[in-house]
Specification:
This protein has nine helices and two strands, in the order E-H-H-H-H-H-H-H-H-E-H. The protein is mainly alpha-helical. Helix 1 packs antiparallel against helix 2 and helix 4 runs antiparallel to helix 6. The radius of gyration is 21 Å and the shape is elongated. It starts with a strand and ends in a 9-residue tail after the last helix.
Length: 220
């Protein structure tokens, strides 16, 4: 097994990542205004910006879903119990004792078991919730005349805020983990350059050297 610098994040994945980051920050800022936490911008302006940012984010998600399935990248998010408890133990105990991370990135497995589970929950539960409730908000005038709409708009609003705080919690944890282990730049670098340190089997290394040499940097 050899550790090599491999390009595992293609341009669209990096664009999708940073585009999502920017839009989520904008929506969080405007969402806090709508929720009454701050008054740094006018309410009407916050509604407009929040709405347009949400529509752009949904469009980005549609392209990302298509990209994940057509490229097979979705396989990186399939959860596994193999090594899950070792990783859980590391983050709950070992990390504070200076232990070495039990998981090493592999060519066909970018995320450790806990990451894969967290990302999958985010994509299959939290994102759809905020997406559906957001659309329900935008189309409220269409179903407002229906019986019980006043009750359901409160349910929609609470679910939307709950999902938003779920995403915010994920971001906070994501930022915290960037401060652990390697330097922050080593964590962030792959999403700028596309390259990350990957443990390759002899077969994977031979395949990349022969068929996709542009994805692997020459050994120094």
């Amino acid at each position: 097994m050899a550790e090599r610098l491999v390009k595992i994040y293609p341009p669209f994945e990096r664009f999708w990542h940073w585009g999502q980051v920017l839009l989520v920050i904008v929506m969080t800022f405007t969402g806090f205004r709508l929720y009454g936490i701050h008054e740094w911008i006018p309410y009407d302006q916050a509604v407009l910006v929040h709405t347009y940012a949400a529509l752009l984010l949904m469009l980005l998600w549609i392209f990302a879903i298509f990209w994940h399935f057509t490229t097979g990248t979705w396989k990186h998010y399939v959860p596994t119990s193999n090594g899950l408890f070792q990783v859980m133990r590391f983050y709950s105990y070992g990390i504070f004792k200076g232990e070495k991370h039990p998981y090493r990135k592999a060519y066909w497995r970018k995320h450790n078991p806990l990451q894969a589970m967290a990302y999958l929950a985010l994509k299959l539960a939290i994102f759809p919730t905020i997406w559906i409730t957001g659309i329900a908000y935008l189309t409220y005038r269409l179903w407002e005349p229906a019986a019980g709409s006043g009750f359901w708009i409160e349910v929609v609003g609470n679910l939307h805020v709950l999902a938003a705080f779920g995403i915010l919690s994920f971001i906070v944890m994501h930022l915290y983990l960037m401060t652990t282990g390697h330097s922050i730049w080593k964590h962030v670098r792959p999403m700028f350059t596309g390259y990350d340190d990957i443990v390759l089997s002899p077969e994977e290394e031979a395949y990349l050297e022969a068929d996709e040499p542009h994805r692997i940097k020459p050994a120094e």
